[in-house]
Fold each of these.
Amino acid sequence: MSTSRFTAGAPAVEIIRVGPGLWHALDDDRVAGHGEATTRPDGRVSLTVDAWHRPVFDQLARTMLADLPGPLHTVVDGADHELLAAWQAAGLAFGRREWDYVLPTTAVPALPPAGVTLQPSAHEVVAVEGGERVGEIRVVRVRVDRIDLVTVVPTHRRRGIARALVTHALGVLHQAGVERAYARVDEADPAATALFEGFGDRTTSTVELVRDGR
């Protein structure tokens, strides 16, 4: 739903549940909006509502939240303040905000610290020291090239391992003809934020809204 298209006024609607995870808002037997609850692979239940009128959205969202038990969540464009407010008014609370970064693949390579080697495999690059795995990076290449994971063992952080992993991954993509990659970072993670702000520009954000179990 794009809330910039909300129109003034609202029809008198009846909210009915038409199937598992599906609700319709009916205006004289005409569908004026619908809501859906889907179970993600991780087991979380995700909500979506599509309606032209804000009051119709409100009725659908509140009915869905009343009908559904347990934890619920939805993801909203961080710039869509009207939709954020609508979901919060319905009963969801702020969960987290993630920022998307665009990363040029021409970053200057950074060498790992002495004693640490980078070992690439088909799906990831692992940082190894003394035979132990101390960090890794994973890149997903579906539709766009995205850094999906960067992690360093806590006792080995602040040594430049994460930066070396990122520049290695970007260099491999550059050699494959890729000009830019993407990463999504939780704004509550200052270390990851600082890392990726050193490589690229922050663009858009997404906000997760949640309701804990009841």
Amino acid sequence: MSVESGFKFELHCCREVMRELSKELGGLADRLLSLMSQGLGLKNDRLKRRFEEDPSRKAHANYCPPCPAPELTLGLRPHKDPIALNMLIQSLGASGLQVMKDGEWIAIDPLPNALVINLGDQLQILSNGRYKSTVHRAVNNKDARVSLAMFYGLLNGVADPIEELADV
């Protein structure tokens, strides 16, 4: 077996794992949207129905190598995600994610068997500002780290406030 064919085999295995992970995280997103609908005083399926009209799921894997001087560099500038939900799996050991809270950066250290859920711009728009998009960044670390993000949102990116939440 050549190196190339072995590499293809590894990608094929990864594809199946990613397909299953996408399915499970999609189910989690549906449950979160149901709870968030309740929190907005809407029917349980209101947000979920909006995403069924135009769904998009994308995965992004990221490897950050060790950085000898992390205080001198920034991994990923502060930003908000344009999608609805970002479900993030972080490798254990090295922290890199920070969120802005009350004007200060707070480190979100990785926990075993845990996901980080960031809300994005589409959810802020759909909720008419009742839910806020998370400002976050990634910082470099002396240790290597890996993260996997699953982005869930509207495929065409067009979001309007849900009718029941539109301020008159």
Amino acid sequence: MTPWGRFGVALHTDSAELVVAAMPLGHLRNPVTDAVALGPLAVLADFAAGLVNYHRRSTGEWTVTGELNLEFTPDAHAVVAGNPDIPAIATAVPIGGRAATSLSECRITYGDNVIGTATVRSVHFTPDGELSHDLDLHSRDEEPRDLATIMSLSVIAAADGPPLLRQDPHPEINNPLGVVHGGVAATGLELASSALLHTTGGANLRTATMQVTYRYPFLAGAESHYTARPVRLGRSSGSTDSTAIGADARPAITARITAYR
């Protein structure tokens, strides 16, 4: 099982010019705030737009995500919460030519509503050995439905402030390189941001933008976790800097996340 299969991603169209994929979303809730979570759309966007970029690789090359940016519409949370039983759809296409990196974008719809857009910049490289490209999108009947279990995430209460979100190791959340999948990690960063805002007076703030930068491989282990610090908290908006800390204690992935009422 891959991260995509674990999240229930279904691939409808797969070509170098167009990728269309779907993913259940309405049942995925932030384990701290219990609100509908839009962060998991990072998994869907990274899959669809990342696959477009993967098709642009040269022989012997592989791709990894270098940057992932998501923008959600002001009514995205309400749209998903109002009809939780339909999937989100990502439609991804390439942008421009490629060099050492390639760029793609996708539009995310939910029923008849557009709820977001995303861009993915992938880095092309030549791996030391052969990597598997088995998408393995088949889910199991007993597959968990709550987000913390899907992500292998432990919520640890803190004496002061938001709970600690620990990223426990699990082979099904890893990418073919053996590190935590970029979309899964981006989801964790959004959960940490929302949890922080929720506990610091921003309970009515909803995630609007995610700017994620992948710096180093994110290794899951006893010390790996997601953290967020406030950048600004105002009457109508708030922003955080979130970081994924790996088992090696190194900041691996960072995100500037902004939310609005």
Amino acid sequence: VRIRDENDNSPKFSHLFRAEIEENSAIGTFVTQISSTDIDIYSVVTYELEDDGFGIFRIDPYSGNVTLISYIDRETQSEYALNVRAMDGVWQVRTSLTITILDQNDNAPIFSRDHFKFFVVNNAIVGSIVGKIEARDADSGENGVVFYSLRCAQDRFTVDPSSGLISLSIPLGNYTNEVFICEAEAIDGGMPALSAVATVEITAVGDKIVVPRFANRRPYFALLAGSPNGTVIGQLKTEPSTSCMRVLTDDDRFVIDENGTLSTRSNFPTSEIGRSITLRLAASFEQFYASSDEINATIEVTGANLHPPKFAQKKVTLSVPENSEMLTIVGIVSAFDDDPGINGRVTYAVDGNDFGQFPFEVNVTTGVVFVVGPVDYERKEIYKFFIAASDCGVPPQKATAQVLISVVDQDDNVPQFEDDSITL
């Protein structure tokens, strides 16, 4: 008795497939071979790439050989996820093929500008930071690592090969308005290495340099766990304003742009909730890099901001004598928030008054209301306004309380006759 085989079994893949190929490989380069098994005797298995292999790869339907049919660039796309079908005329199955594009050193570093210009005071000490040069390389791994060198007359300035920070190596003495021209080179770590050059102009000055100062000396920000890369954390301002702010702390998860916007360059999982991160920030005028103001900014990773602040009293009645001196304390408003950590941290502000020269202010952290302008009973007897309490969560929540301040009259006006003379 002969049993005739029927095609009643589908092909089977033994595993998921992965392959690697270098970018810039020639058309026709072999990538990998796809294979499967079919226990039916007479079945003929053929292969097919779904989505036509994105027009970049093809598969031989009988051998399963995958080859390159188009130019590939790792900087455009570093990995391709393909689906492969195996068919025996009746049955078909699918598997995945992941192709990783390996980097070649085909991109030279590019300086952020062709000409850098910095100023330094002539009495700066050796080691003072003068400025920073920066170049980027689109390649990955060692091919994308950039190193710096600097050539200057008399070697007055040197550059840190990794950070690009330029520092003073020889005292300037009495040089004033003297211009030093240097050539900077950025070279990558590839084999063979590629490089780029830029001009660095450094001027020695004798005048005192004005340094911008951060308006908020102790900024505290909340970062919601799970927020995506690029999330804005907060805004920093300086007086006078400057477009040159930077993160000094060696933590590449954060970046600050020319507008003072502090944002993330990484994701922060929920496992980091409650963690505080301290960043050292600096601000300077771009060409006066060495003269900078520095502060510490604290970032707390938080969970959801569930509760708004609540005032102990929704309506607060206070009084103040007229002619009170500046900074006289009038009273206090108080609010609390049930959230833990920074989500429960409450700040206060006068909410939307339209009185012009408003004579009262509230301390942002304590809720103390105090005098900041002239108070005159004869001009205004009662001030009615709102104070807002906001938490520091993401997004922040707010509550308001009404404040009534009665101005208490003082005997500060002498009697006046309606007429200078009276006839009886």
